[in-house]
Specification:
The complex is a heterodimer of chains A (545) and B (122). Chain A contains 19 helices and 18 strands. By secondary structure, chain A is α+β, with helices and mostly antiparallel strands. Chain A has 4 domains: 136 residues, HPT domain (Four Helix Bundle (Hemerythrin (Met), subunit A), Up-down Bundle); 60 residues, Orthogonal Bundle (Helix Hairpins); 181 residues, Histidine kinase-like ATPase, C-terminal domain (Heat Shock Protein 90, 2-Layer Sandwich), CATH 3.30.565; 128 residues, OB fold (Dihydrolipoamide Acetyltransferase, E2P), CATH 2.40.50. In chain A, the strands form 4 sheets. In chain A, strands 10-14-15-13-12-11 form a 6-stranded mixed beta sheet. In chain A, strands 2-4-5-7-6 form a 5-stranded mixed beta sheet. In chain B, helix 4 links the parallel strand 4 and strand 5. In chain B, helix 2 packs parallel to helix 3. The longest helix of chain B is centred in the first third of the chain and has 13 residues. The chains are: A alpha+beta (545), B alpha/beta (122). The interface between A and B is medium-sized, with 21 and 21 residues.
């Protein structure tokens, strides 16, 4: 038996099960009598147990077995789990996830905490000892009546349409395939260009063939772009549980509603949206939602409500995170901005509310009175903004004191096809998204003023910083002649001039994700393969400076 | 050589049984991931043997055995159970399942059980 193969399937399948368990636990929390959720939990735990036992991962099998038993007991007794049990189930899930993570990293999982195992079995022991069948029956009826089990009743259950058949494809395989499609597209346009001189009357067939090829390749490109997409669900699915955990630690209660998770977005964009969304959610729970007493006093339901909604408009996805919490303390934000030197005190008085709210995206500004365990850890709202903007998107925040806060993101659905400006740096050519280019101009070298290691140039009566791209990407500084080509761009609200050795031209490119080895290089947004087979990197302007 | 239909909601288990069964020269003619699907596939494929997981979505393996036995009383169904499911296995056997194998699967035991079922149909 090929153990490595089964280990991989085990990791994939149990990870999917964890997502389902998490969903079912949240359902159960909302409605403890949800027998369908209990059935799902039972099946998932049972399945994980079976797989783990087959691979001799006894600690995983043991813990899954305890969870399975608890679910079985709930199924049979019809008794609804209380808050304490639910909390225990969530802990069990977290422990299982950690164990599978160990397996994923090539290790051997250690036994679950004895206290957890004991809690999972002792509670079941406490209740599962009916003294006489009659007594058990009586208890069962009493509990069951208000919450009848519905899982296997009615024809609706049986006729539920089964999802269409799917195949599992490794991400690597898919990426390789898509990268080949990208090359086909690039080669096609090169063939088209070099054949343009031959399309004479005698060669009509060539022209027709090329037209057909264009159509088919166009279709291939559309299908390939579809394959690059993944449902938003993949990154929003863990959020309700994350919110629950953050809230629990802060003594708050919160429920998360998700709408539009079925939207499909380019995987490369989706991957980078995950951290910002988690951050927004943390902010909402930590700084938005009030403690239950405060909510009661304000006439709100004790359980805070956070809605994450997504919809598509043309080629963009709009995602908003809305909470019904306390809203932003605008006076506090203003004071902090002045204190942090982000805002001149004289300007503070006349700032309209939306401009004050926008200050939270400035670096060095955190409105949290104390840096709590979960928020204010490393990334702030400024990092969220940088990420969203480097994806070619935008972010805004609207807040109403006492009513809550809405943060809205807009990001493009695909990053795969982009028009770029190609710049030559010594032997290399790099690309810059054309959407980031304000204009290109040539200036006399002496117009660039130097002050220490910094350089500036006066354009439109504005002194702009001059940045040497070659130096930024770790190459030797650009040797300039009597005139210099400058690319004007705006990065995080500031205009600046980029210097490169030469301007090569514009082109539509098919952007491929970076190979894993380079994925940590933040200044690179992707790459494409040039006609001669060399790679050309797409720069992320937000990260260059 | 027998034509086998494998029913389990975990693709992990389906692959494992497939590998064991195919190594012995049998053919896996179909797979099902829930209790409804196994009944449909049984009707469509008329397999010689069905390996049937007990815990499956939509319809449990036990209910699926009952339906299959109504459709074809001499169907050969082997239950796949885990430790602690003795009473369920008994229920399935009463409903007409011929034998059972216990997870985690031991290839020899799986093959021996399928062989036994194939050799001595009741």
């Amino acid at each position: 038996m090929d153990l490595a193969k089964y280990r991989t399937i085990f990791i994939e399948e149990s990870t999917e099960h964890f997502a389902e368990i998490s969903r079912a636990l949240l359902d159960l929390e909302k409605d403890p009598a949800d027998s369908e959720a209990i059935d799902t939990l039972f099946r998932m735990a049972h399945s994980i147990k079976g797989m783990a036992a087959s691979l001799d991962y006894a600690p995983i099998a043991e813990l899954a077995h305890r969870l399975e038993d608890r679910m079985q007991e709930a199924r049979e007794s019809g008794r609804v789990p209380d808050g304490e049990s639910l909390s225990l189930f969530f802990q069990g899930l977290t422990a299982l996830e950690a164990m599978v993570e160990v397996v994923k990293e090539g290790g051997w999982p250690e036994a679950a905490a004895p206290a957890l195992l004991a809690a999972l079995s002792s509670r079941s022991g406490d209740h599962a000892r009916p003294t006489a069948p009659a007594a058990a029956e009586a208890t069962r009826t009493a509990v069951r009546e208000p919450a009848p089990r519905v899982a296997f009743e009615g024809p609706a259950e049986v006729t539920t349409p089964r999802p269409p058949p799917t195949v599992r494809v490794r991400t690597e395989t898919l990426d390789r395939f898509l990268s080949t499609v990208g090359e086909v597209i690039l080669n096609t346009s090169q063939v088209r260009t070099s054949a343009s001189g031959f399309e004479t009357k005698r060669n009509a067939a060539l022209g027709e063939g090329l037209d057909r090829m264009d159509r088919v390749v166009g279709e291939l490109q559309r299908r390939a772009l579809e394959l690059r997409t993944t449902q938003l669900l993949r990154i929003v699915e863990p959020l309700p549980r994350a919110a629950r955990e953050i809230a629990e630690r802060a003594g708050k209660r919160v429920e998360v509603e998700i709408d539009g998770a079925e939207l499909e977005i380019d995987r490369s964009i989706l991957d980078r949206l995950s951290d910002p969304l988690v951050h927004l959610l943390r902010n909402a729970v930590d700084h938005g939602i009030e403690l239950p007493e405060a909510r009661r006093a304000a006439g709100k339901p004790e359980v805070g409500h956070i809605a994450i909604t997504a919809h598509r408009e043309k080629d963009n996805v709009h995602i908003s995170v809305r909470d019904d919490g306390a809203g932003l303390d605008l006076a506090g934000v203003l004071a902090r901005a002045v204190e942090a030197g982000v805002l001149h005190p004289d300007l503070a008085d006349d700032l309209p509310p939306d401009a004050i709210a926008a200050l939270v995206f400035e670096p060095g500004l955190s409105t949290a009175r104390s840096v709590s365990e979960v928020s204010g850890r490393g990334v702030g709202m400024d990092a969220v903004r940088v990420t969203i903007e480097s994806l070619g998107g935008s972010i805004e925040l609207v807040s109403e004191r006492g009513e809550g806060t809405v943060t809205s993101l807009v990001v493009p659905i695909t990053a795969a096809v982009q028009r770029v400006l190609m710049l030559g740096l010594a032997d290399e050519i790099v690309a810059l998204p054309i959407s980031k280019v304000e204009r290109i101009l040539e200036v006399q070298a002496e117009r660039i003023e130097r002050s220490g290691s910094d350089a500036f140039v006066l354009i439109d009566d504005e002194l702009l910083p001059v940045i040497d791209l070659a130096e930024r990407v770790g190459m030797a500084a650009t040797q300039t002649g009597s005139s210099v080509s400058l690319v004007l761009t705006e990065i995080r609200g500031d205009r600046l001039a980029l210097v490169s050795e030469r301007i090569v031209g514009q082109q539509q490119i098919y952007v491929k994700p970076l190979p894993e080895l380079l994925s940590g290089v933040r200044s690179l947004a992707g790459l494409t393969i040039l006609g001669d087979g060399r790679p050309m990197f797409l720069l992320d302007p937000n990260q260059i400076v | 050589m027998a034509r086998v239909l494998v029913a389990d909601d975990a693709s992990f288990m389906r692959q494992m049984i497939r590998e064991i069964v195919e190594a012995e020269g049998h053919e896996v003619v179909g797979e099902a991931s829930d209790g409804d699907e196994v009944v449909e596939e049984f009707k469509r494929l008329s397999p010689d043997v069905v390996t049937m997981d007990i815990v499956m979505p939509r319809r449990s393996g036990i209910d699926a055995v009952k339906t299959i036995m109504e459709l074809q009383p001499d169907a050969q169904v082997v239950m796949c159970s885990a430790l602690g499911q003795e009473s369920l296995v008994q229920e399935a056997m009463d409903a007409g399942a011929r034998d059972f194998i216990v997870k985690p699967f031991k290839p020899d035991a799986v093959i021996a059980t399928i062989q036994k079922v194939l050799e001595k149909p009741e």
